[in-house]
Design a protein that fits this description.
The chain is built from one helix and two strands; from the N terminus they run ββα. It is mostly helical. Strand 1 and strand 2 form a beta hairpin.
């Protein structure tokens, strides 16, 4: 017996404060959502990489200062 109360909730996206069902979007709109997700993920990845580089830069600077003060 299938329980009629167990409805699957469609994935949604919020644009300018309004929710849209992803399944209702045009193919072009779906592609733009995918592009946006990719770009946001890349930004997040690059920001993490920048954090690593900033840490390395600080360590190298400290090492150089220590070397110069010996």
């Amino acid at each position: 017996m299938v329980n009629s109360y167990c409805k699957k909730k469609m994935p949604t996206i919020t644009i300018d404060g309004k929710d849209y069902d992803l399944e209702d979007l045009s193919d072009n709109a779906k592609q733009q959502v995918a592009n946006l997700q990719f770009v946001k993920n890349e930004i997040q990845r690059l920001e993490a990489q920048i954090g690593v580089f900033k840490t390395a830069s600080s360590l190298y600077s400290n090492a150089l200062n220590n070397e110069m003060n010996q």
